[in-house]
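Design job #97: recover the sequence.
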């Protein structure tokens, strides 16, 4: 029995676009995480302890953000809430890397982590909506595949770009990639 609005085909156009969104988002995130501590030490002058803390600080906010994001996704619609939370997150990310001063960096980077995590539950809910019930396990396996592949490639790409255009510029390229992923989600992923 197929419920109204439930996916009937595993590799639909929307699911493929959702996987492309996931790949782009993973590319942006991996480019940042691969060189964040080095950037914070070499360019921002943070000591290793603070730089390492900043690298993990965004996960600390997840205890509050993840359940809040799930509630908000249920209330406002998963795709809509995911787009809102990611748009705000990427604005905070851009501010963190482009405003002077470490205090502003810390503030906006922690806010980025919080708002980025607000989208975790809605992202998983979208995957469930895009996957036929009987193939949901395979669907979730597919959801993690782009991140695994891109996670291996992104540090190499970011390292090359860092050599060619400078370490600090990697982060702005990653921010643009994240916004491109958001556009892909907005216009090419169709969910009932």
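Job complete. Output follows.
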């Amino acid at each position: 029995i197929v419920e109204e609005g439930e996916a009937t085909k595993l590799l639909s156009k929307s699911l493929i676009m959702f996987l492309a969104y996931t790949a782009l988002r993973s590319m942006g995130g991996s480019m940042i995480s691969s060189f964040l501590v080095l950037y914070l030490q070499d360019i921002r002058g943070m000591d290793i302890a603070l730089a390492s803390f900043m690298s993990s600080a965004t996960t600390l906010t997840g205890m509050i953000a993840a359940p809040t994001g799930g509630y908000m996704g249920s209330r406002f619609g998963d795709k809509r809430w995911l787009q809102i939370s990611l748009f705000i997150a990427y604005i905070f990310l851009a501010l963190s890397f482009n405003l002077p001063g470490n205090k502003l960096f810390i503030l906006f980077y922690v806010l980025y982590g919080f708002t980025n995590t607000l989208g975790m539950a809605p992202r998983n809910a979208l995957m469930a909506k895009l996957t036929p019930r009987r193939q949901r396990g395979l669907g979730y396996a597919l959801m993690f595949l782009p991140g695994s592949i891109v996670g291996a490639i992104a540090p190499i790409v970011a390292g090359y770009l860092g050599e060619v255009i400078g370490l600090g510029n990697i982060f702005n390229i990653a921010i643009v990639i994240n916004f491109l992923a958001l556009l892909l989600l907005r216009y090419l992923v169709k969910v009932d």
